[in-house]
Design brief:
Layout lengths: L2 H16 L7 H25 L8 E9 L4 E7 L4 H16 L8 H20 L3 H22 L4 H34 L6 H4 L6 H18 L8 H8 L2 H26 L1 H27 L4 H20 L4 H32 L10 H4 L1 H14 L6 H16 L1 H26 L16 H19 L2 H40 L1
Antiparallel strand pairs: 1-2
């Protein structure tokens, strides 16, 4: 049974089915969209159950000819680097649809774009053909543009256009690099292919690696976002509807970090090693800068948005340490950030639905009014700052452990981001939840509804479970992370020979 294809295209089938339902049947529209998203999550659990934790290579691989005249194939597969990101995506989307029950305008179109977006995200995570990867990468762009631009806040068009311009610029450069890479492979092997496994065996001169790495890295760095390419993110988060912010933080930002470890680093290992000091420096600057800017925010949603710049800086720090601890911690932290920041945006959305404001100064004394919401808020806040016993601590500890081996000076500076993160998160939580009731309207706030409990309960459960017992996750990540690092080491050692050989070939051709 083609499990991955079913996983990827089931949301698209659901999106098509939505078009058959009358526009005014809102309950039917939501029920159908939620049902398809829940079915996708069940398929992801089936794939997880069949996954062999002892195998480091690709599993559940499916291959079919697509555009054979140009060597383009439909190839999908999953390994330890992508498995849990697939599960996270399949979990977050039904939660985001539950969070969208307050949407009343153009509901059919809204849910249609949500499901198409899920197909794009899942396809991006399992694609093993670079052209196929690029197609899914672009499929993610269009639905998010409409979700922000149609259902966003007052400055939604500005935020949506800015999101598209940034993302599209990087994507076009990556497309040029993909075409060049496939053409170069054809010149060397006489085989035209866009398959990642075949292209990963191509040994390129350093200068070619560097240009191609920069093209891929720019596209992925914008999506992360890596400082100083982060300026689109706060606008997109603040203006997006709650579900859009959740998906953007929990999943879409991880596409950038996933792109680095899946494609940019293994394909161009020598260039990645040469760029590592600069990427590390930008990551640490992003960690400290994001934390300090977050401290200055008076809007809860904008504070959480800037915290993502800081947290994703840790992921980049771990990836470019090029050791097992750093890689494992980076992948684990991708999952942690998806859970904790996704939950934070859900909570901010719930507060906004009740009070129609996100200003920190408008709150206070919520613990007595909404104790259950406040308790969940506290757990998620502790997760975000990396409290031992919760998921954030495991990822940050592994990243800092791996990064210290490679870049001790930068790692010491990055550690200040942990301290700053605790300061701005606890400061925000204290002002919102504790103290006197600043506004009389806060007395009218209702606690969590059954629907909201259903949204937050799985996230809180995973936050605790991953903090207490990370072994099932790390054991499955370890093999694939080791393979990626071995590929980098092996190809980087062989790269000087490639340059000499290429120069010799040019000399022979000149004779």
């Amino acid at each position: 049974m083609p499990g991955l294809s079913l996983l990827v295209f089931l949301p698209a089938v659901g999106a098509a089915a939505l078009l058959l339902i009358p526009r005014g049947a809102m309950r039917a529209l939501f029920s159908l969209a939620f049902g398809f998203s829940l079915a996708v999550f069940l398929v992801s659990l089936w794939i997880f159950a069949r996954f062999d934790p002892n195998a480091a290579g690709m599993q559940a691989v499916e291959r079919a000819a697509w555009i054979p005249a140009y060597g383009i194939e439909y190839i999908v597969g999953v390994d330890g680097l992508s498995l849990f990101l697939v599960l996270l995506t399949a979990l977050i989307v039904p939660i985001a649809i539950l969070a969208s029950w307050t949407v009343h305008d153009k509901v059919k179109e809204y849910l249609f774009f949500m499901l198409v977006l899920e197909t794009g995200m899942l396809g991006t995570l399992v694609a093993l053909d670079l052209f196929l990867f690029y197609v899914f990468w672009e499929v993610m762009l269009v639905p998010m543009y409409f979700l922000i631009g149609v259902w966003g806040g007052q400055r939604r068009l500005y935020a949506a256009v800015k999101f598209v311009v940034y993302t599209m610029t990087g994507s076009l450069l990556m497309l040029v690099a993909i075409i060049f890479l496939a053409t170069r492979n054809y010149q060397v092997t006489q085989t035209l292919t866009f398959g990642f496994q075949q292209l990963a065996n191509l040994r390129l001169p350093f200068h070619e690696q560097m240009w191609l790495f920069l093209a891929f890295a720019l596209s992925f760095a914008i999506k992360v976002p890596l400082f100083p390419l982060h300026t689109w993110l706060p606008d997109a988060h603040v203006e997006a509807p709650t579900a859009g912010s959740v998906i953007l933080a929990a999943i879409l930002l991880k596409m950038g970090t996933y792109g680095f470890i899946r494609f940019a680093i293994p394909l161009f290992p020598e260039a990645a090693l040469a760029a590592a000091p600069y990427v590390t420096a930008l990551a640490v600057v992003g960690i400290v800068y994001g934390a300090m800017v977050a401290m200055m925010q008076d809007d809860i949603k904008k504070l959480v948005a800037y915290s993502s710049v800081s947290h994703l800086g840790f992921v980049m720090l771990g990836l470019f340490a090029f050791n097992l601890q750093g890689a494992q911690g980076a992948v684990y932290q991708m999952l942690n950030h998806g859970l904790s920041t996704g939950a934070l945006f859900l909570i901010v959305g719930m507060i906004y639905d009740r009070r129609h404001t996100r200003m920190i100064a408008d709150f206070g004394g919520l613990w007595k009014q909404v104790p259950l919401l406040s308790a969940v808020f506290l757990i998620v806040t502790f997760s975000s700052i990396g409290l031992p016993g919760l998921n954030g601590f495991v990822g940050e500890f592994l990243i800092l452990l791996g990064a210290f081996q490679a870049h001790p000076g930068w790692t010491v500076l990055a550690t200040s981001g942990v301290v700053l993160g605790a300061i701005y998160m606890l400061w925000m939580f204290r002002r919102v939840v504790y103290g006197p009731l600043v506004r009389p309207e806060n007395r009218l706030m209702a606690d969590l509804s059954p629907r909201e409990i259903a949204m937050l309960a799985p996230l809180v459960a995973l936050i605790v479970f991953m903090g207490v017992y990370p072994r099932p996750f790390l054991s499955r990540i370890q093999g694939s992370a080791r393979v990626a690092l071995e590929r980098v080491e092996a190809q980087s050692m062989a790269a000087p020979l490639v340059r000499v050989e290429s120069a010799g070939e040019r000399t022979d051709r000149g004779r």
